[in-house]
Write a structure and sequence with these properties.
mainly beta; 5-stranded antiparallel β-sheet; 1 helix; about 50% strand; flat
């Protein structure tokens, strides 16, 4: 199996990282004949009143991304307020809980699960308040217009934190509000997103039984339905999947592909340089990769890792299954067959190397540049990492009840668990660090 590395005590780890202990006292000369003593470290503390009153009922506490600000919603005398760094906002019947908003790659866009949300740069706050049966978006303490509903009670900040958008309903019509300006009314709106450079917006809309993509306020062609919007990294290109009857087409920059029977998640991906695109699609009962509009070989299925581009955008890779066997395909070159391929296919930073997890019988190994490593009971899912200089590789593996890190094919000391996402190389690629657990203790390990 693929091991899921432990996730516990993540909050505690974040708190430890946030603390900064500095030697604030100068080192005094040691008496003659004695070893000099190290300066006593002192913790520099800055206090910020939170305005917390014992008579208040706090719903939850939110810390800003830069760890410098705190916000929470609280109940006072049957009313709710949001308190940011000790400053109370207006009273509402309710501060609305929302739904976490991320794009299809899982990247942060907005988060308002319990009320207030900070912008990515931590300088702004937003939340949805309820008063008299109406909802209002409150940004930096300033209310927007009243609406009957705000979709998912979620407010979206742009990546640069300078813009705000949300989806709102008045009566039976929905609008998208961007920087306080309402767009055209539709029967339904969804999938609102800013471009990576924050200058553009896009969303899906329906009027009647037709769907359109709206980019920067301009409607595209009508289809029976549209989904899976994607901006390119440079923000200049946009793609979506459109439904026409029972079949779908891929639309990139307004240009349609041929019709297909289905399209795999997440839809279209762009290369890092934004010049190329790829997707996995289905014809009949076969799946194939389409890269830059060119169809590849047919397979029984495409692996759950999907398609990925190398950092320099020159190569694309994916896992594919034929019968009971799977293999990795890199730029049309097929690798060795295995019983299974894991979810990780990783290119090195210089794009010259590739690593992935492969299964043979009941054992797993990591294949690097076509060479198999030692076999283990499992490989930590998502743990494969190359060093910055692309010369080294590390990952988490497991055997029986023990977990350990493997660096350059050398197995390190075993632990009861290793914290997910903690494995990393130093910037100069010479050292490895991770958080590991033994019994009830959590240890920081370096190599």
């Amino acid at each position: 199996m693929i091991f899921a590395v432990i996730r516990t005590i993540l909050f505690a780890a974040i708190i430890v990282i946030a603390l900064s202990i500095q030697p604030l006292c100068a080192e005094e000369p040691a008496p003659s004949g004695k070893q000099p003593q190290a300066p006593t470290p002192k913790l520099k503390i800055t206090e910020t009143p939170l305005g917390i009153d014992r008579r208040e009922t706090r719903e939850w506490l939110l810390v800003s991304p830069d760890l410098r600000h705190v916000a929470y919603s609280a109940e006072q005398n049957d009313k709710f307020v949001v308190i940011v760094d000790g400053v109370k906002g207006k009273e509402y019947e309710r501060v609305m809980p929302g739904v976490p908003q991320v794009n299809e790659s899982g990247v942060y866009q907005a988060y308002a699960e319990h009320g207030p949300v900070f912008s990515p740069d931590s300088k702004h706050t937003a939340y949805v308040g309820k008063r008299g049966g109406k909802l209002v978006a409150v940004v930096n303490g300033t209310e927007g217009k009243e609406y009957d509903d705000i979709k998912d009670c979620a407010i979206l900040f742009s990546p640069d934190s300078k813009r705000v958008a949300y989806q709102a309903r008045r009566g039976d019509k929905w609008v998208v509000v961007v920087d306080e300006a309402e767009g055209k009314e539709y029967d339904e709106v969804s999938a609102l997103a800013f471009s990576p450079n924050s200058t553009r917006t896009a969303y899906q809309a329906r009027h009647g039984n037709k769907g359109v993509v709206v980019v920067d306020g301009i409607e595209g062609k009508e289809y029976d339905n549209v989904s899976r919007l994607a901006f390119s990294p440079d923000s200049k290109r946009i793609a979506c999947v459109a439904l026409r009857g029972e079949r779908c087409v891929v639309v990139v920059d307004g240009n349609e592909s041929k019709e297909y029977d289905d399209l795999a998640e997440p839809g279209v991906i762009f290369s890092p340089d934004s010049k190329r695109f790829a997707y996995a699609t289905k014809i009949g009962n076969k799946w194939l990769a389409v890269i830059d509009g060119v169809e590849g070989k047919e397979w029984d299925s495409i692996g759950r890792s999907g398609l990925i581009f190398s950092p320099d955008s020159s190569r694309a890779a994916y896992a594919a299954r034929h019968g009971d066997q799977m293999r990795v395909v890199i730029s049309d070159t097929e690798g060795k067959e295995y019983d299974g391929i894991g979810a990780d296919i990783r290119f090195s930073p210089n794009s010259k190397r590739v690593a992935y997890e492969a299964k043979h019988d009941d054992k797993w190994c990591v294949v690097v540049d076509g060479t198999e490593g030692d076999e283990y009971d499992g490989i930590g899912e998502g743990s494969l990492i190359f060093s910055n200089d692309s010369k080294r590789l590390a990952y988490v593996a497991g055997h029986e009840e023990e977990m350990f890190v493997v660096v350059d094919r050398v197995k390190e000391k075993g632990y009861d668990g290793i914290l997910e996402g903690s494995l990393s190389f130093s910037p100069d690629s010479t050292r490895v660090a991770y958080l590991a657990g033994r019994g009830k203790n959590m240890l920081s390990s370096r190599a």
